[in-house]
């Protein structure tokens, strides 16, 4: 039956007549696999009337958006985006705080095969211009009451509101390349707050994000009854973790606007009015409430869990939080934006007095943390520090338009370089404990040389926070006018305690640390400056010290 010259080598001629059996219904038309919007809207099918987003911008004004209402917003926005004929894979800058509509907008981008780039309304113009120049988006999307103006003329602009999109300026006409959407396409690009030079765009595919979400959900951190407060700006992927945790669990996300997070009374009011059961944020969101509003914090009787990430939680503050929320589950969540996150580890309750550093546990199911020493050998003995390398299905695709930085971060698997599998080189140091758990020991670039001696800044900071009355501390190695580095520390006093004396702090360090690890200068501050993502702003401290402020 083979006809050699036929383009179809096999013909039915000569074969027994093949009855045209009724073919099974073909797979739904369109892309195979699951995308971000499929995963995050799944609950809309089972519990359409359950709350998906609960907002409260003003006392007593609480807005609940159900899963069905969220899905309807997604339909409206996806219709608006689809009508613009933007090619698959184009970027949409989504400039907004985390709101129900912003969540619907990012889901609509996913639905229409577009990559969203979240930026905060507070993003300085120059930084926004740098992101626009790097990501070259087709469209800028903001809320109807968004305040961004004077966007580059080539950029399409639109706004999302209660009924759909309104287009101010259509994207430049182009011949759309209708590629088939694929789960390896970028779902979003998050620009790191890298202070030096060009911001790096972390590209996360649908496949990576869903692999991470699935790994996270095995920890059963949330139930459908949970109301998960998210206190990070949308540009920080902590907010995207919270959206995935809430919607992936059939629970509700409670976005707290950044301008309310900063004020303890506003933050605690929003948590009370919305009935938040879980509060997720970087350690700094608790500092002022612990200090000035402990009673109001302790009065949040629906609050049953706290999840933090981003940097170490100073132990005196963590212990104080446990005192005020004695029944709350507190989870230390470690990871980098290049894999969204990595591990979830319960903080012992109460934290034993002799604990000096928190465990970050092991990678979420389906991923593996490896420690690699300076020679590139994998370390598996307890107590020996190594750089964390992460093997995971949730790794980023690379830094946008930066192959060199990508190559430095996605390196061959140290255990099997021949395999072609890439692992994430995190730049974080850790040691393994007796039971295989890991302890964060700072970043490789926070190992500084003071007068030829290696100093781990995190170790100096931990020692400073052990001083009675010290709540948090940051240590920096600052350049001396004549060359060399000088160890400088900034200490925040604890609630209602006599502020520690700088001299006494230095003596306290001198008793426990080698001379080169004793800060030469110690400044007491009422508060530590934080970056847009809520982490201690070390660059701002270094500038202030340099100005002698
Ligand atoms: N729990 C920690 N203890 C101590 N140092 C930490 C910790 N979580 C991060 N870090 C540090 O922060 C770095 C990552 O910084 S980042 O890329 O801006 N990403 C983040 O900070 C947030 C991260 N994407 C994330 C989002 C949501 C949940 C967990 C983690 C890590 O490499 C660590 O150095």
Structure commentary:
There is one protein chain. The chain has 549 residues and is α/β, with parallel strands linked by helices. The longest helix is centred in the first third of the chain and has 17 residues. The termini are far apart. The chain has 16 helices and 28 strands. Strand 17 and strand 18 form a beta hairpin. Helix 3 crosses helix 4. 26% of the residues lie in helices and 26% in strands. The strands form 7 sheets. Strands 16, 17, 18, 19, 21, 22 and 23 form a 7-stranded antiparallel sheet that branches. It has a 6-stranded mixed sheet with strand order 11-10-12-13-14-15, with helices on one face. The radius of gyration is 26 Å and the shape is globular. The structure holds the ligand Nc1ncnc2c1ncn2[C@@H]1O[C@H](COS(=O)(=O)NC(=O)C[C@H](N)c2ccccc2)[C@@H](O)[C@H]1O. The site of the ligand Nc1ncnc2c1ncn2[C@@H]1O[C@H](COS(=O)(=O)NC(=O)C[C@H](N)c2ccccc2)[C@@H](O)[C@H]1O has 22 residues, from helix 7, strand 14, strand 22 and strand 23.
Low-pLDDT residue spans: 1-29
Mean pLDDT: 92
Number of helices: 16
Helix/strand class: alpha/beta
The set of bound ligands, ions and cofactors reads: ligand 8PZ
Characterize the overall form: globular
Question: Terminal Cα separation, in Å?
Answer: 89 Å
User: What value does the Rg take, in angstroms?
Assistant: 26 Å
Tell me the helix content: 25-40%
Q: How many beta-strand segments?
A: 28
